Amino acid sequence: MDAIELNNLHVSLQNKHVLHGIDLIVEKGEFMTFLGPSGCGKTTLLRTIAGLHQPERGVITIGGRTVAEGASGLHVEPAKRGLSLVFQSYALWPHMTVFDNVAFGLQVRRMPKANIAESVGAALEKMRIPELAGRYPGELSGGQQQRVSIARAIVTRPEILLLDEPLSNLDAKLRVEMRTELKRIHQELNTTIIYVTHDQYEAMSLSTRVAVFFGGQIVQVDKPRDLYKHPRTLQVAEFIGNGGQHLNHLNGRIVIENGRRILKTQIGLFPLEGGGLLHEGEVVLTIKPEEIRLSEQNSQDSVPAVVEAVFPAGAETLVQLRAGEAVLMARVMGESDAEPGDMCYAALRRERLNLYDKRTGSRLENLVPLTHILEDTLHENRLSYSR
Ligand SMILES: Nc1ncnc2c1ncn2[C@@H]1O[C@H](COP(=O)(O)OP(=O)(O)OP(=O)(O)O)[C@@H](O)[C@H]1O
């Protein structure tokens, strides 16, 4: 059974229409991340699932049970939805010890004292902080407080754990540490997790699937690697992976010549395979810097290039190339011995190129993979390409 099903959810807050028709199925045991820029509605959706907001339209089903319905006004209260919510701000009670903070939810449920002690002990153990039981929140570091807030959320053994940017108040080192902990907790508890973040790295490294939000809508739901390989829109492509930093964009045009569709770009001509966009039109070709390989050898998939600049950055080196009329950024692992002025070939991974309709920003899914570049037309192309 699916853990959560959202059907055509619309949510307004103080007369502001924040969520515009959300459809989503979260499967049992998933680690689903809501990813998107600030203000796109991720937290609002999380809180609506938790029962802190009521949708004006649409239906929320948790474990097969309808817990909210806009049309009828049905609203199951948060405590009866079988889920726990962890806030960015930890929200611990300062006047209570760690033990009492974690025990609170069990005391409310009138669990016998001995069982409470056992459950709290197990939750603190799971978060690797049993020695902190007697301390007050004010005596803890940010990372320790966040561990306590997660212990408090898992102590009731919820079916579903909702985490709202739980790592955003932690410093970089603690974030890495807690990310590892969250992955472990998910594997050990096998709980369904919904996680809100605007950090692509967190989303990619933790999730089984990622839902990408823009402007109150979900624009793509995919496994991290599929999202990375084939963002569905240009907007998503720019947001994913380094926030789109250095993503190479090439303007191009699809033309039909002798019954064949040809993509004309500043770096060459590409014959196209597949369906989609049957007419001629303006497109954008995106190439990730890590998918350009520098080579001394020419090949079917490479274009001649000149090194313009080299930017060593420790674990990787960015190499700026000029290919035809275009500037391309390539990312090379480790050090590179390339030097400005070097002639080389930029080999492209064809299956990783993405083509987008320039007008709508949508990916032309059926037009990839591209077949090899027509080398004999490169020269002609440079002369004839015009936007
Ligand atoms: N209580 C509220 N009343 C009115 N508008 C609100 C309220 N809460 C959020 N909003 C608005 O709803 C929109 C979505 O906010 P939300 O907090 O869900 O975004 P988010 O994607 O989680 O952003 P962030 O990453 O900054 O937390 C924003 O434009 C915000 O200003």
UniProtKB/TrEMBL annotation:
Note whether Membrane occurs among the keywords.
Answer: yes
What does the record give under GO molecular function?
A: ABC-type transporter activity; ATP binding; ATP hydrolysis activity
Indicate yes or no for the key word Iron.
Answer: no
Origin: domain of life: Bacteria
Instruction: Cite the ABC transporter domain residue spans from the record.
Output: 4-240
Ranges annotated as spanning the membrane: none
Q: Name one GO cellular component term.
A: ATP-binding cassette (ABC) transporter complex, substrate-binding subunit-containing
User: Which keywords has UniProt assigned to this entry?
Assistant: ATP-binding, Cell membrane, Membrane, Nucleotide-binding, Translocase, Transport
Designated name of the protein: ABC transporter
Task: Tell me which species this is from.
Answer: Paenibacillus stellifer
